[in-house]
Task: structure prediction
Amino acid sequence: MKIRQLPAFGVTLVLFLAGGPRLFSQDTEPRIHVTVDMVQLNVAVTDNKGNYVTNLRPQDFVITEDGIQQKIATFGEGNEATRRLEEAAADPKSAPAGQTHGSSDGVTVGETARDLSAVVAGANVFILFDTSNYMYRGFVFAQDAISDFVRSLDGADRIAFYSYSRDLSRASGLTADRMQVLRGVRTTTAGDDAALYNCLLLTVKDAAQYTGRKVIVVFSNGPDNSSMVPPEDVAELAQSTGTAIYMISTQEAQIEPVSTAVFERMTAATGGKAYFAKNWRDEKRAFASIRDDLAHLYSISYYPQPNPNRGWRSISVKLVGQALKKHHIRTRDGYRMQPTRFSASSIPVYPPGSDAGANTSAAAK
Result:
């Protein structure tokens, strides 16, 4: 089965039960299109001491969207490949089988999730490095901290390295090649004013094209002084596309209290975290904390139950049982429905029996 990513929010499952007259007989059944939206969550669970809570099972979580309880479709912990619920159920620490969401054409959510599990492993990590004129004094130390972070990430993770001042520079696209990313880090130079929110919005749009866990790690050494985009717009797009934002801000960035508050609100809304580093040692500790966070996130997805709300949808994730309720959950708190950009005319036609006869196109919110 061939998996192809589309620049759309949601999951589009296309079944080719028939095609054009050149390849099929005239009495073949018509082509059927089934569209299902999948919402993916990155969930961190910690105890009262801030330690990560591991080995939780799908049935330990209750997810509601606008107050409507949802059925978990896929589940994974850390950097393991996300599994459909039936596979998770076979594991002794997982949920009972049978929680699948069927469709009228006989294709179940579990079958769709099985195909998605092949591409939802590790994280897609976009590093956005401040190379504005704020960075002159601590430039080399920041490069060292970022390089150590790149080397330390799990092998399943793919990394992109971008830098920004007034404009965005895509030094290295998303890749598993650590050396390519490190070359991008080492070739950056300090420059102009800082347009953080403009460049962060472009980075969120880039990340939104990918399935699986999407994470942006921003290293900022000063306040934004030249953006035209408000930070609220960036945060909402990140929420709606399931992109978690982590921000490491140096002491220079804290000169402006407004920036500090914005960084904290933006990261909290997307399920990420904000760090404020006083020196290069704090920078390294912040990157190490983000690496640990990525290694302990639960990846949970669901297909929304019928809901007439086409605007902002609120998400709530809770734990079941008195022993677990005392733990803390960090994840995004909602999303806004995005328009699906999909053209049926672009679908290729395959002969019956071909491996490509069922083409699944996936892009998770």
